[in-house]
Amino acid sequence: MSQNNIPAVDRSLPLHEQEAILSKDHNKGLHRTHGVVREIIDVSPELARVVLHIAGLADDPQWCRPNVSLRLHLTDGEEQLTRLYTVRKADAREETIEVDVVRHGESSPMMRWLEGLRIGDDVPLVGPRPHFQIPEAHGREALLFADASSIPALYALLAQAPAGLRGRGWVATADTVAFGELPSLAGVELIRIEPGTGFQAQCEEYGNGCEVVVWGAGERDEMRAVRAHFRKELGLAKEDVSVFGYWKRNTSNTAIDEARLRAYEQLLAEGGTVTELDDLALPI
């Protein structure tokens, strides 16, 4: 894979945080490469799908794992920024990936980037980083919690789900088109709920003694509540609850990334690794 002409980090970052991003621990297994825009698909008024061709993608099978993330490098005026996204689908034969971008209805660096994107554009990126899977169920029911931001991750996980998976999933989105694209599995019931209401009512359907595993991704405070219910209140084991916060209300993605970087830099200084970072425990 080509690794040329790719900005290493945001130019605004302090030197020590640049060193953290460039560390061997952070970049283990990652490619600093680029994708060429092959298609821009208007899936719905709320959702755009960007198809990127990555030369040499087939050489790394990690791209085709379910729920892998990548960082897109984008320029907003004079500012160099990055944004973390999930690969919805990878095609090793075509050497392409699909990245879904939710249109959130307000101006932001990502929305301005999307508006200016054209077929043939070169997009610097770093990836793939394997992300968390649905915990091994061993016959138990899997409970899935997602919002519009995590539909691509849920799509990838269901598309490559282990045989016999059974459970229920709640997807908080107003986008009926994106919801309708999710894979239909015989043993998994998916329910669309209105966004912004949280998942408290769904969590409370399950009390002490329930035999479940949990996967969730979405707004940070909503995901914290999901994790607290199953880990703290019901006492499920750590390995049976995989929950992650993608975004936070009234907080920019830049601020979230900066907080993650500070925590990671401290962890590195203490001899830790990126796999030990408990993202939902960060004060964001």
Helix-strand layout with pairing:
Layout lengths: L14 H7 L2 H4 L3 E14 L2 E7 L14 E9 L2 E13 L4 E7 L6 H8 L5 E9 L10 E7 L3 H9 L7 E6 L3 H5 L7 E6 L6 H4 L8 E8 H14 L7 E7 L5 H17 L15
Parallel strand pairs: 7-8, 7-10, 8-9, 10-11
Antiparallel strand pairs: 1-2, 1-6, 2-5, 3-4, 3-6, 4-5
Notable characteristics:
disordered N terminus, alpha/beta, single chain, five-stranded parallel β-sheet
Structure description:
The chain has 284 residues and is an alpha/beta fold. 24% of the residues lie in helices and 33% in strands. It has helices spanning 15-21, 24-27, 109-116, 151-159, 176-180, 200-203, 220-233, 253-269; strands spanning 31-44, 47-53, 68-76, 79-91, 96-102, 122-130, 141-147, 167-172, 188-193, 212-219, 241-247. It is globular and about 55 Å long.
